């Protein structure tokens, strides 16, 4: 490398270089879909990708560089590129030679140019730098150290939920986009307002029991599946039943919305598709599973439906070819109830197996190919991707009854939460993605802070840990 005439580093050039690399990198475009040219507001709303490079570019500038003989602009570019690959593309650094030089901690001093609201920024919960690979000035490290996420090991709220059933095949809680939690307790459904903590009784079936609940993606409608095979639609504002669908001859254990389409899975082995705008009980009947359908999830774009069954099978259905599955995935060795689509990477699907399997598997749903698997050591009851980070939440049954937060790129356990004394069969997430609620056969609902800074206002409004009843 030719010797540089000046030791002064142009930080603006480095950030521009990183931005150009990000825009031209095909993996960033296709898999992570980052958009560094969008506004701060759009970036905060989308919750996609780590904004370290762009946020640093906006809020900090280098005011001084200590002249170190072993460091020049090339080493700075190399280190910044490594940071970009590790933090945004989540790739492990590749060391091409033992002589690679890194920026010393004393090499740069940073000056904050303008203030920003750290509570509305995603940076607070990111471990920005792995110091094995890249180091920055102590000033910047200390500034962000206060906002490194610390997940509490105990729930910040517990609700008593009498008669919450201990049944692996049911789905009895769901959290709406309007911040209302629905909870099915035997023959009744209760609504818990997360803002006011007010509990409202929505319905009582008397001679039947509720086996599944699911909120529409927008609006106040709640779908309720029953033991005798009915699916009812309720208006949660007017507290009135809008419609009743028939078609199943056994319990409806799973429900899932995609826009105006409602999918239901039953113990009768069938999947029925209903359009809330059309008359009739259903417009499509799908038959592939040999035992009870216990898991249903539509992809975020509404193009694919994943169904899991007690026959240990995971099927993928296309919205354009609905008569039969486009892929049949048979690797699981137990019932497949836990299904989740990634909101961060198009076509990435996760599934979990029951007691005899204990595996979390990742799939390329676009091609029907397996990607990765992880033995969790216990029954996988639920899976859900974080809305904020590229992380996965799993809940478990026999034998550990735990909740686990995973880093998706390497399936490293970030945190393990325990407290339930029975299988953690039910899982739902708040609209802002900061909080999860879990339910179990111990008849409690427990609320956990996964992203404490975002959830600070929620805690202040609803108070500390206490155990009121849900009804």
TrEMBL record:
A GO CC term attached to the entry: anaphase-promoting complex
Keyword Repeat in record: yes
GO biological process, one term: positive regulation of anaphase-promoting complex-dependent catabolic process
One Gene Ontology MF term: ubiquitin ligase activator activity
Domain of life: Eukaryota
Keyword list, A-Z: Cell cycle, Repeat, WD repeat
Positions of WD repeats: 203-244, 286-318, 417-450
Keyword Mitochondrion: no
Domain CDC20/Fizzy WD40: 159-448
CDD domains per record: WD40
PANTHER family: CELL DIVISION CYCLE 20 CDC20 FIZZY -RELATED, FIZZY-RELATED PROTEIN HOMOLOG
Protein name: CDC20/Fizzy WD40 domain-containing protein
């Amino acid at each position: 490398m030719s010797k540089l005439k000046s030791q002064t580093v142009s930080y603006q050039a480095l950030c521009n270089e990183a931005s150009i690399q990000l825009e031209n990198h095909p993996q960033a475009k296709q898999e992570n879909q980052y958009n560094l040219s969008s506004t701060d507001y759009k970036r905060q709303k989308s919750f996609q990708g780590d904004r370290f490079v762009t946020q640093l570019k906006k809020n900090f500038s280098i005011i001084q560089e200590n002249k170190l003989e072993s460091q020049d602009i090339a080493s700075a570019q190399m280190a910044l590129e490594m940071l970009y690959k590790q933090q945004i593309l989540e790739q492990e650094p590749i060391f091409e030679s033992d002589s690679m030089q890194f920026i010393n901690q004393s090499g740069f001093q940073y000056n904050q140019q303008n203030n920003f609201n750290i509570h509305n920024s995603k940076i607070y919960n990111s471990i920005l730098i792995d110091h094995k690979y890249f180091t920055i000035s102590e000033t910047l490290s200390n500034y962000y150290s206060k906002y490194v996420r610390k997940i509490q090991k105990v729930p910040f709220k517990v609700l008593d939920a009498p008669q919450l059933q201990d049944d692996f095949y049911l789905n009895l809680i769901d959290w709406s986009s309007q911040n209302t939690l629905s909870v099915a307790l035997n023959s009744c459904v209760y609504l818990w307002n997360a803002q006011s903590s007010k509990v409202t009784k929505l319905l009582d079936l008397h001679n039947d029991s509720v086996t599944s609940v699911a909120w529409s993606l927008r609006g106040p409608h709640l779908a309720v599946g029953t033991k005798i095979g009915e699916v009812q639609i309720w208006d949660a504002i007017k507290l009135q039943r809008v419609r009743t669908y028939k078609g199943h001859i056994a319990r409806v254990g799973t429900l899932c919305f995609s826009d105006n389409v409602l999918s239901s899975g039953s113990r009768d082995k069938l999947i029925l598709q209903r359009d809330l705008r059309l008359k009739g009980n259903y417009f499509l009947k799908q038959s592939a599973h040999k035992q009870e359908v216990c898991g249903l999830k539509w992809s975020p774009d509404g193009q694919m439906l994943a169904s899991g069954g007690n026959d240990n099978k995971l099927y993928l259905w296309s919205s354009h070819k609905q008569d039969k599955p486009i892929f049949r995935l048979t690797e699981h060795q137990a019932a497949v109830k836990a299904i989740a689509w990634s909101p961060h990477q198009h076509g990435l699907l996760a599934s979990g197996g029951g007691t005899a399997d204990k595996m979390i598997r990742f799939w390329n749903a676009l091609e029907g190919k397996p990607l990765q698997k992880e033995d969790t050591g216990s029954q996988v009851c639920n899976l859900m991707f974080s809305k904020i980070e590229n992380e996965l939440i799993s809940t478990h049954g026999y034998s550990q009854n735990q909740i686990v937060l995973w880093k998706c790129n390497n399936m490293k356990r970030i945190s393990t939460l325990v407290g339930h004394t029975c299988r953690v069969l039910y899982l739902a997430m708040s609209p802002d993605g900061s909080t999860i609620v879990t339910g179990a056969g111990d008849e409690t609902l427990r609320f956990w802070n996964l992203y404490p800074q975002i959830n600070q206002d929620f805690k202040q409004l609803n108070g500390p840990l206490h155990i009121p009843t849900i009804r």
